[in-house]
Amino acid sequence: MTRASTSLWQRLHRRHSERGNQVLEVDRSFMSPKNLLSKRNEPKKVGRDKNFVATTEKIFAVLEAFSQHPHSAMSLEEITRSARFAKTTLHRLLYSMQKIGYVDQNQENGNYMLAQKFFELGRDALPYQRLTSLAKPFINALMLRFGESIHIGVLEDGLVTNIAVCASQHPYRIAGVVGDSNYAHSSAMGKCLLAFLSDSELDDIIRVHGLPKRASATITNRAQLMEELDKARRLLVATNICENMEGVVCVASPIFNHEGKAVAALSISGPAVRMEQGMENMKKEIKRVALRLSILLGHRPEKIEAATAATVNVSNT
After folding, report:
1. Deepest of 49, 56, 253, 294, by most Cβ within 10 A of its Cβ?
2. Residue 249 near residue 240 (C-beta atoms within 8 A)
């Protein structure tokens, strides 16, 4: 190998070595503990939630915008500012909601408002959901105290429908099922609810359902039923003494909402042989708890018994 070729080879080797050192230096820098630690502490990128429907957020943004202006219609510009979504997107949402009947649009100025259908959506269901939620600890306490089944019922299409049940632990018990319905005239809860209807409303129910005989003691005479309803209205307590089913006794009291309307009734049901022993105590307690629930729903009775007013805890029920 000549001197010239040797020199060329040395220069190429030197250049290759320098490049190798540079690469090694970069690799060492990348693998340094400081860099590794910083990489480890970097926040992980959160992937898109595949189960989330983005349109839902936009719809509720529109509803929240309406809730901020409950007494007036809103223009598209106002809804856009409140909801903070693109105007074209909100216009399509409002058009769709109007198409299915949940939004109305003023034909003169183009402003939007929630339609009656929207308010009807939760008018009946939501109060019942709130009542059953509030009532749960109370009906559990009543069942444990008296050992009998506790029901809450509402009047639907002239019949009493159970919306909450806490069944007795006795082997032989009387317990309905949520959603079951009974004739109003032959049940204690039904009498509580019929007692606060107008004469025309009561007449309509009797015309549709009649006063069928359910058991040997069922009231089938309108005049006699009116006497029972008058008593329930005065005492805020009604009874069913083997009127709906042989050998079964029930005690109930009405539950009022913030408008003073009887929206539901609370009852204790059980075999007559057990119920008759503590009937008076049951009447007092069912009336007291029903009033507590009424107050929780916003009812403000003119006169509250001292014993009820002094009760502040569910544990005291």
Report:
1. 253
2. yes
Residue 218: helix, strand or coil by DSSP?
A: coil
Let me know whether 67 and 205 are in one domain: no
Considering the domain architecture, whether residues 159 and 105 belong to the same structural domain is answered as no
Place of tokens 């408002």: 113
180 Cα distance to chain centroid: 19
- List of residues 6+ apart from 206 with CB closer than 8 A: 185, 222
Q: Degrees (nearest 5) of the Cα angle 10, 11, 17?
A: 85
Residue 216: burial class (beta carbons within 10 Å; 0-12, 13-18, 19+): exposed
Q: Is residue 11 part of a domain?
A: no
- 283, 249 in Cβ contact below 8 A? no
Cα distance between residue 258 and residue 101, in whole Å: 29
> Phi/psi at 211 (nearest 5 deg)?
-130, 65
Residue 86 tokens read as 């693109």
pTM for the predicted model, two decimal places: 0.62
Q: Which pLDDT value is given to residue 255?
A: 96
Query: 191 CB contacts (<8 Å, ≥6 apart)?
Result: 184, 185, 228, 229, 232, 238, 240, 252
Name the 3-class secondary structure at 313. coil
Q: Domain range for residue 111? A: 54-121
The per-residue pLDDT for 171 is 87
